[in-house]
Design a protein that fits this description.
Helix content is 22%, strand content 35%. It is α+β, with helices and mostly antiparallel strands and 139 residues long. Strands 1, 2, 3, 4, 5, 6 and 7 form a 7-stranded mixed sheet that branches. It starts with 12 loop residues before the first strand and ends with a helix.
Length: 139
């Protein structure tokens, strides 16, 4: 553990929690770890959290979004040890999505809250609460 202080800190990961009338956007990972996830990626040097979320969603799904200025939550991920920052996002136009990064994702789709509970078991509670507020009444 002592040499941890001498290693460069890895940049945080931002997870875009994209919601609209169709539900919340999730992706199926090719590596299966985890099988389903929110669209996420590393924040590049000099990039804001919001810009990173917008870029990742565009690259991975083709969807144009705006990111909220305030985070939903953040944590040190219990499995990876990486800082995870969850940002609320909304589409700016059409809500059709594609797999923009076939090396990383096998599928992207909009899902309901009940599907989130099925596909992302053990979801971080502040994100689950946010989704309940945003899409909880949708079928």
């Amino acid at each position: 553990m002592p040499d941890e202080a001498t290693k460069p800190e890895r940049p945080p990961l931002v997870a875009a929690i994209v919601t609209c009338e169709r539900g919340v956007l999730v992706g199926k990972r090719n590596d299966g770890t985890p099988p389903w996830t929110f669209i996420a990626g590393e924040v590049e040097p000099g990039e804001s959290l919001a810009d990173a979320a917008v870029r990742e969603v565009k690259e991975e799904t083709g969807l144009r979004v705006v990111a909220a200025e305030r985070e939903i939550a953040r944590r040190i991920h219990p499995k990876t040890g990486r800082t995870m920052i969850y940002l609320a996002c909304s589409p700016t136009g059409k809500t059709d999505v594609i797999v923009g990064d076939p090396e990383e994702l096998a599928e992207v789709k909009w899902v309901s809250l009940s599907e989130v509970d099925e596909l992302l078991p053990g979801i971080f509670e502040p994100v689950r609460e946010y989704l309940s507020e945003q899409i909880g009444n949708q079928v």
